[in-house]
Specification:
Elements (H helix, E strand, L loop, with lengths): L11 H14 L1 H12 L8 E10 L3 E9 L3 E7 L9 H14 L5 E8 L1 H6 L8 E4 H11 L2 H19 L7 H17 L19 E2 L8 E6 L4 E6 L6 H6 L7 E5 L2 E7 L13 H18 L1
Parallel strand pairs: 3-4, 4-5
Antiparallel strand pairs: 1-2, 2-3, 6-7, 7-8, 8-10, 9-10
Helix pairs in contact: 5-6
């Protein structure tokens, strides 16, 4: 047992929750984070709190949000080895701006925390204001010299080694089963959407995409289940939202920014991928009907 690895597999949520606790209870670590992100200052503000999985109804989810007493915030994306989602950094910036407009903070930075290998080789990682490596955090924890900090440093070391071994998604049986039933319904009732048969799905898989042959290559239909949207996304068109709005002649649609894309959006009932599919079949059916309408719009 002594030589056996203490961790069979680490998920990004494991690291999320470790960082959530550390930034909430350790002013030393949260103030170190502040200086790494905003730069060294004569007086470093205290951390007022850290929140996990903070969701904006329009722009999606931030893994962690750290707020300081001077009303500056850090929005953090945490990665071990999973591929970046399209325009992920852009959506973090949009969430930061939305939070400032709502008065949640006065200023913000977006930060990605990941193994150095990930930061060096992932182009999306370069779009954040700053990247902080697992190696830096491990070193910082090692310096504390306690049994607790030593154990937590080992968690980061294992995550670093896991990144070197490469990405291997861990299937969530409930989510995988939900996606399969979703695909069966979409294929039977709306074959024109050409949904691809899903493989194994990790817990965070929440956005079924449709790329039917009838649509141009810059168009994608996305069902954002937990947020309650069905979008027709137009890649690279975020600067042409007003032009697109002028061509929409019904109040059934919204036209919004989605990262660097523009999205023609329907609001639909929210769907929980962890819940029973049959209970939510009517909600899924409604979303697929809107997706089919967006297919006609995209033609």
């Amino acid at each position: 047992m002594k030589d056996q690895n203490k961790f069979s597999y680490l998920t990004e949520r494991d690291i999320d929750l470790l960082l959530l606790e550390e930034f909430n209870v350790s002013q030393s670590l949260s103030q170190w984070l502040y200086c790494r992100v905003f730069g060294t200052r004569k007086e470093v503000p205290r951390c007022m709190g850290t929140w996990h999985s903070v969701t904006d109804s329009q722009f999606g989810e931030s893994d962690l949000v750290v707020l300081y007493e001077n009303c500056e915030a850090i929005l953090i994306e945490n990665k071990i080895d999973a591929p970046a989602q399209p325009e992920q950094a852009a959506r973090y910036r949009l969430r930061g701006k939305a939070g400032a407009e709502m008065g949640n903070w006065l200023a913000f930075k977006i930060c990605i925390i990941a193994p150095m290998r990930y930061l060096d080789h992932n182009s999306e990682a370069q779009l954040y204001d700053i990247g902080i490596s697992y190696e830096e955090i491990k070193e910082r924890l090692d310096l504390e010299g306690t049994a607790r900090s030593s154990y937590r440093a080992k968690v980061f070391e294992e995550a670093i080694q896991q990144n070197r071994r490469g990405y291997s998604p861990i299937a969530n049986d409930r989510v995988t089963r939900f996606w399969y039933q979703y695909w069966e319904l979409a294929s039977d009732e709306f074959p024109a959407l050409e949904m691809k048969r899903p493989g194994i799905k990790p817990a965070k898989s929440d956005w079924p995409e449709f790329r039917p042959s009838l649509l141009g290559k810059n168009l994608t239909i996305v069902h954002k289940m937990a947020q309650g949207y069905v979008d027709l996304q137009v890649s690279g068109a975020s600067e042409h939202i007003e032009e697109i709005r002028s061509q929409i002649n019904t109040s059934d649609y919204e036209v919004v920014a989605a990262g660097k894309s523009a999205a023609i959006r329907f609001n639909t009932p929210k769907v929980d991928r962890f819940d029973d599919f049959e209970i939510q079949r009517t909600k899924v059916m409604s979303a697929l009907e809107w997706a089919n309408i967006l297919l006609d719009v995209g033609k």
